[in-house]
Specification:
This protein is an alpha+beta fold. Helices cover 35% and strands 20% of the residues.
């Protein structure tokens, strides 16, 4: 080979080398100089994160300073979409490996979707776990670097296993979150409610609040005090600027704006007293079931007991049975548990104290009396005779006794001649039939005036308590009946309304609040369960203030007559089982019929043809200077005097620190006097 050809080859080689170096240099110039900012931004984006730091939710205390809702640390396994492998096979391998590690999980609450059901405490098939992980990830993924939770409340051992294998699980992170914990569980669940993830149907509502920094995946109050005090309890989120490695683990904290703690809420409720009330109510329901001659699910389905301060509206205890464990909702409740709660015909998720609607029965009578006295329809000396039955003539054929409608008193042999105080004392139905609907020459109060006065005492409208889910009740009249039944109101309807039956419905809280208005001589307060709101340093942010709904326009002398009738009902009337020598108690019993069916769909009636009854009792004490008002209700419990009164006795005796009651002989009732 000639030297010329060698020189040419060397020249070409040099040219190629120089060209390559020029291309490489140009590329390096482009990457490091021309596009330096772009790639620096990409690099920083890969390793720097602006992370939202949730504020610890405020603590809830009872009035004695006991913690009733707090935060508990919990492990959550999440997946960061941007860090998962791009190849489908590699991504599936991550899901498969995570499922294998989770196969031994015994306390994880899975974010199940579709038909899959994952129940804590049960070993889950690997295929189901694998399906849950992927489906939860696909349905809930949002921003690329926002972690998507796939399992909450994970056992610590499982969390450690996942963390140890983070090199084989790119995109999988273990987070420590604060879950809500309720130490007293079902005892206070209807008052406290619960906090949980923002439901999908409410996402727009929260995200559209420009003044708040809600994000998908946040936990918010969903029921009870947790809901109504959401703004006070949630606090303000913080931010931190961190550097992460390729596995999304934090390696350096660059800057931090710490979150502001949520405010603490102090309730008006005393948790010890709450548990005493709950125990008394459960025992009363048990005793009522033992007294029943017919076994049917329509009896003793639910029960309520509420105590409040009649001078301020403070709720001292509120129990609704059956209840539920609000800790179930702290993480992600399993589909099976949720279905079981919703399918329970006793409706344990409903706070029957404020959401249940029932005929109030005879506890309604004092308010009918108040209207009749104030309107001058009756006086303290007005008397009617009760012979056990009353025949209401047909208005179209008044002279035909066969067409007359028969109305009964609860006491078949009658009460004899009674004035208005005695009628309340002995709960005479026939007296109140005539007082409200009239008879012969006596005109009666009439349904319009009756409705006007009972509404003044709070019936037919929400009390305004600071809890969600309150019902309005129903006080019907002629217009309502025409609109709903296409029929005119008749005197018999007024008779039924006078004794809290027919088209009258009320919540136990309405019954209590109206009783408290009598105890306070006509002042109707708004019931409240929040006593105070404090910041993290214990400084009061919002304090309790009694709120007066209205001063009821009924003269003091008439309220005194009603109070005396309620006092006599306890000393020697229908509530005689509650007579306590140590404390003067005033009260009113109620027994309200309601339709119940057997397994074949037929109405249940006793041997005398009567429908089953709800048991009611409402009271206040001490009589001269009341400091507690109380209502007890047992759905399908039977007689108020036999079921609800003993429950109230246990509650009041504990409240006043009195010993158990001794058996007493029943009082003598009046006999029918001949006309």
């Amino acid at each position: 080979m000639s030297s010329t050809r060698i020189d040419i080859r060397l020249l070409v080689y040099r040219i190629l080398v120089i060209a390559g170096l020029l291309v490489l240099g140009a590329r390096l110039w482009d990457l490091q100089i021309v596009r330096e900012q772009e790639f620096s931004y990409r690099a920083d984006r890969n390793r720097f994160r602006l992370v939202t730091v949730d504020a610890p939710r405020g603590i809830i205390y009872d009035r004695q300073g006991r913690i009733v809702a707090r935060n508990a640390p919990s492990f959550t396994i999440s997946i960061v979409p941007a860090v998962l492998p791009d190849e489908e096979a590699a991504r599936d391998a991550v899901f498969d490996r995570l499922a294998i590690l989770m196969e031994t999980a015994d306390e994880a609450e899975w974010t199940a979707v579709g038909a899959d059901v994952f129940k804590p405490g049960v070993a889950l098939p690997e295929a189901s776990i694998r399906s849950s992980i992927e489906e939860s990830f696909l349905q809930n993924r949002g921003a690329p670097y926002t972690p998507v939770p796939v399992a909450t409340n994970v056992d610590r051992q499982i969390a450690f296993l996942v963390e140890e294998e983070h090199l084989n699980l790119p995109g999988v992170v273990v987070q420590v979150e604060a879950l809500r914990y309720y130490p007293y569980g079902p005892s206070l669940s209807h008052v406290l409610g619960y906090a949980g993830y923002i439901p999908a149907e409410l996402a727009d509502h929260y995200l559209d609040q420009s003044s708040e920094d809600y994000q998908i995946g946040d936990r918010v109050g969903l029921m009870g005090v947790e809901l109504v005090c959401e703004k006070e309890l949630r606090g303000l989120k913080g931010r931190k600027h961190v550097e992460v490695d390729v596995y999304e683990h934090e390696v350096n904290l660059l800057a931090e704006n710490p979150p502001s703690l949520g405010y603490n809420v102090i309730l008006t409720i005393d948790v010890d007293f709450q548990q005493v009330v709950e125990t008394a109510l459960r025992e009363g329901m048990r005793d009522a079931r033992e007294q029943l001659t017919i076994e049917n699910d329509a009896f003793c389905r639910s029960a309520v007991a509420i105590a409040m301060n009649p001078q301020t509206g403070e709720i001292l205890a509120m129990v609704s049975l059956p209840s539920y464990d609000d800790n179930l909702f702290s993480g992600r409740i399993s589909v099976e548990d949720l279905a079981q709660l919703h399918s329970d015909s006793r409706r344990p998720l409903v706070n029957h104290a404020i959401g249940g609607l029932y005929p109030p029965g005879s506890v309604f009578k004092p308010f009918v009396a108040a209207g009749a006295l104030q309107e001058g329809i009756a006086t303290a000396s007005t008397k009617f005779t009760c012979e056990g039955t009353l025949l209401l003539p047909n208005k179209y054929f008044p002279d035909n006794p066969e067409l007359a409608q028969t109305f009964h008193c609860w006491r078949k042999q009658g009460h004899g001649s009674l004035n208005i105080v005695q009628a309340i004392q002995h709960s005479c139905d026939i007296f109140f039939y005539q007082l409200a609907g009239g008879y012969d020459e006596f005109g009666g109060l009439g349904i319009e005036k009756l409705g006007e006065y009972v509404r003044l005492f709070g019936y037919g409208e929400p009390t305004g308590i600071d809890l969600p889910g309150e019902s309005s009740g129903l006080v019907a009249g002629d217009r309502w009946k025409r609109q709903n039944y296409g029929e005119s109101w008749v005197t018999g309807d007024t008779y039924n309304a006078a004794i809290g039956q027919g088209f009258i419905l009320a919540t136990p809280l309405q019954v209590l609040n109206s009783t408290a208005a009598i105890a306070s001589y006509g002042t109707l307060y708004r019931p409240q369960v929040v006593y105070r709101v404090e910041d993290a340093e214990g400084q009061t942010v919002r304090s309790f203030n009694p709120e007066v709904i209205r001063e009821i326009p009924v003269d003091q002398e008439y309220l005194s007559l009603i109070r005396q009738g309620m006092r006599d009902a306890v000393t020697h009337g229908t509530a005689w089982l509650l007579d306590m020598p140590e404390i003067a108690v005033a009260g009113k019993t109620g027994t309200a019929e309601y339709p119940a069916v057997d397994e074949e769909g037929n109405l249940i009636r006793d041997e005398d043809g009567y429908l089953p009854t709800h048991a009611w009792f409402t009271a206040f004490a001490p009589f001269d200077d009341p400091e507690i008002a109380l209502v007890v209700f047992v759905e399908g419990g039977g007689e108020g005097s036999q079921v609800a009164v003993p429950i109230a006795g246990k509650i009041l005796r504990h409240y006043f620190g009195l010993p158990e009651a001794l058996p007493m002989p029943p009082p003598e009732l009046p006999v029918v006097q001949p006309q």
